[in-house]
Amino acid sequence: MNGEGYKDPTADTAVHRASKMPKHIWRVYKMLNAAASVSGLEITGLRDKETGNEYKR
């Protein structure tokens, strides 16, 4: 919603895309989570050391 309370589809799209993990990060996340689940663990997030971006699931 914008400041006046109306739907803002452009902002909704931008927020949705920003909250998703990029495909190359998602692949790594899936592999790490599969390996961790063997020991009863779960990976809850990743941080890119180069950019500092954090990806949480």
Q: Please indicate the percent range of residues in DSSP E strands (runs of 2 or more).
A: 5-15%
Q: Count the E strands.
A: 2
Total helical elements? 2
Terminus-to-terminus distance:
24 Å
Instruction: List the helices and strands in order.
Output: HHEE
**C-alpha-based Rg, rounded:** 16 Å
Main sheet: which strands, in order across?
1-2
Q: What does the largest sheet look like? A: 2 strands, antiparallel
Low-confidence stretches: none
> Roughly how much helix do the residues carry, as a percent range?
40-55%
Backbone structural class: mainly alpha
Shape by Cα distribution: elongated
Mean pLDDT across all amino acids: 84
Q: Can you describe this structure?
A:
The chain has 57 residues and is mostly helical. Helix content is 46%, strand content 11%. Strands 1-2 form a two-stranded antiparallel sheet. Strand 1 (45-47) and strand 2 (54-56) form a beta hairpin. The longest helix is centred in the middle third of the chain and has 15 residues, at 23-37. It starts with 8 loop residues before the first helix and ends with a strand.
What's a quick, concise take on this entry?
This protein is mainly α.
Descriptive terms for the model:
two-stranded antiparallel ribbon, 46% helix, mainly alpha, 2 strands, 2 helices
